Amino acid sequence: MIFEGQAVKVAVDDAGVATVTLDLVGESVNKFNSLTLNELAEAVNVLKHVDDLQGVIFASAKDVFVVGADITEFTTWFKLEDDDLSDKLRHAHSIFNDISNLCCPTVAAINGIALGGGMELVLACDYRVMADSAKIGLPETQLGIYPGWGGTVRLPRLIGADNACEWICGGAQKRSEDAFKDGAVDAVVPAAKVNESARHLIQQVLDGKLDYHARRDELRAPMVFTPIEKMMIFESVRGVVGAKAGKHYPAPMAAIKTIEKGISQDMEKALDTEIKGFIKLAKGPVAKSLVTLFLSDQQIKKTASKYAKNATPVKQAAVLGAGIMGGGVAYQSASKGTPIIMKDIRPEALELGLSEANKLFNGQVERGRLTTAKAFKAMNAIVPALSYGEFEHVDLVVEAVVENVKIKKSVLAEVESKIADDAILTSNTSTISITELAKDLKRPENFCGMHFFNPVHRMPLVEVIRGEKTSDAAIAKTVAYAQAMGKTPIVVNDCPGFLVNRVLFPYFAGFSLMMQEGADFQVVDKTMEKFGWPMGPAYLLDVVGIDTAYHADQVMAEGFPDRMKHEGSNAVDRLFELERFGQKNGKGFYSYAPDRKGKPKKIFNDEINALLAPVVTSQSELTEDDIVARMMIPLCIETVRCLEENIVASAAEADMGLIYGIGFPPYLGGALHYLDQMGLQAFCDLADKYSHLGKLYEPTAKMRDMAKNNNTYYGA
Ligand SMILES: NC(=O)c1ccc[n+]([C@@H]2O[C@H](COP(=O)([O-])OP(=O)(O)OC[C@H]3O[C@@H](n4cnc5c(N)ncnc54)[C@H](O)[C@@H]3O)[C@@H](O)[C@H]2O)c1
């Protein structure tokens, strides 16, 4: 051993071939934290002074190669002054440059995942051997930045500018066959053969069969394009990427600009270009939001695992109701391997639930994600039922019948008498208090909320709601089941609407108030979509269901009369009265007709304005800024209330709940992160401009205190 650190070790064999092994102590994966980077620098320095070195292999002792830079260190990095951040990046560049300048051939033996900084190390080597099971890529744009350790310079030189733009802007993890096809790796072998194959490549160089000098020269030189070629490549890439990324996510377009400039520069200048663009992104608000979200996601997953630690897994589940939600729960459970009984009182509902699940399984087969045999097995794991026959063997039940307190209470009491004493009973209610629903149960300790989002197979969030009498064991089992279904559970305390709907309904209330002032809902939708929401509020209400929203609104008004009760009839009440229930019956704010694929397509129909006319009580001129403020202020204040009242335990959980549950724009990082970035004082000043609209627009006393003291929800 010629170097032995805590993350990097170097040994040289009798033939003079060194192996640099990455093996970060105390961690299950290798990542480029400061320790690893510094040790790699030392190791390379040692290698520079080895006499008669014949070749160097970069390998990993773990299942992964390197998962990337240590994102927990990003926040500190991004806070550095520009010059200091530039020095840090230059330091990393100097290490990778040293590797690519070593006096002998170098090979990366990619046994497992190599992403971000790990991929940039791979790119600094002369050759790359990849395990057939491994994946490689540069996912930095997903965090609002782009590769900063030479990736934007080396990748285009290796695989061509157009491919590199696709790899970097898309941020995908590439499978070995795609990586080989694009020329990113020289060989693909089984994982167990990666090191041996890397050694073989070095032997080929030593035998004069491969010329690594020629390869280095080629990859260092500026790339040669005619202006027309360059224009054709970059104009088309810009068109595709720009349309996909949208104006709120600047990193992909910045990456294209850097690549375009860098390919015509020599290596040193191109690396400088990369640094300049990187600093601009790293210092911007979007990188801050997206990095915070990444860290929050890790935090909530860890928290969930703690909750579920002592739970025995759910082996057999059941769902009551085969409607939109019940059918979705059954599909998701079966597709992730937990068999489930789906009970309804109407045979036609069961048929519909099964056929919807079947459609989803077929889609998976068509996309090559599932074999026909596996889809068939999963489909058979959904057992339709009209009676409680097998319920005594069930570990957990999800109740997903209509949103009506009386019906829910009676169904819950009935099913409780059919299941084992230790079975867990949960409700997928959207708004009704769990403590209230538990009132007539014999074992309220075994009952909690398990709130899925629509469509269940797509939306990552499950709110697990703790009622007054819910036991830790019930929470543990429900969290474990949500995880087994591939979902991200967040445990919240009980109140009407819990976290997500409690925050969503004030947002809808903001919309209804504007409708009363004569706003055009199409303009409001377009404005909010431009602001970053996946759909505007009118369209969202149609998707949720006007009837569902109407009933939920009543529960919310009863729970929080001081701010959620409204006088007179609003737009949702009016549509409910007209039985325009939204997408489900083809008419709501918009009308719906099936498109070529049979999915409901939204159509604007003039008649709606006349139908909504009775709810308009005044006429206001609303600018885009007014619309955004009037929608966002009530949502943000209600999120703060949920945190202040301990409905949700942390800012990270609140923000992730909104992002995973209702598609809050990720570039803003969630409601509380948005408040931090705007500054609480600026937010309170803005809210005060709209104080005439009522209590939903009134910041809490604690918010004002925090604003005075310059406090934030995420700390410094
Ligand atoms: N639709 C959404 O977007 C959404 C999102 C989250 C939560 N939820 C909640 O999920 C629940 C179900 O909503 P949905 O949209 O699936 O409703 P839905 O009307 O599509 O389905 C309800 C189903 O329950 C069945 N049912 C009624 N009484 C029953 C009983 N005693 N036993 C078994 N089945 C019975 C009905 O036949 C129907 O098939 C509600 O509490 C709702 O608030 C809905």
Automatic annotation (TrEMBL):
It catalyses: a (3S)-3-hydroxyacyl-CoA + NAD(+) = a 3-oxoacyl-CoA + NADH + H(+). Residues 317-495 form the 3-hydroxyacyl-CoA dehydrogenase NAD binding domain. It holds the Pfam family ECH_1. One of its GO terms (cellular component) is fatty acid beta-oxidation multienzyme complex. Keywords: Fatty acid metabolism, Isomerase, Lipid degradation, Lipid metabolism, Lyase, Multifunctional enzyme, NAD, Oxidoreductase. Residues 497-592 form the 3-hydroxyacyl-CoA dehydrogenase C-terminal domain. This is enoyl-CoA hydratase. PROSITE patterns: 3HCDH (PS00067), ENOYL_COA_HYDRATASE (PS00166). Its EC number is 4.2.1.17. It comes from the Bacteria. Pathway: Lipid metabolism; fatty acid beta-oxidation. GO terms for molecular function: 3-hydroxybutyryl-CoA epimerase activity; delta(3)-delta(2)-enoyl-CoA isomerase activity; enoyl-CoA hydratase activity; long-chain (3S)-3-hydroxyacyl-CoA dehydrogenase (NAD+) activity; NAD+ binding. GO terms for biological process: fatty acid beta-oxidation. In the central section; belongs to the 3-hydroxyacyl-CoA dehydrogenase family. Belongs to the enoyl-CoA hydratase/isomerase family.
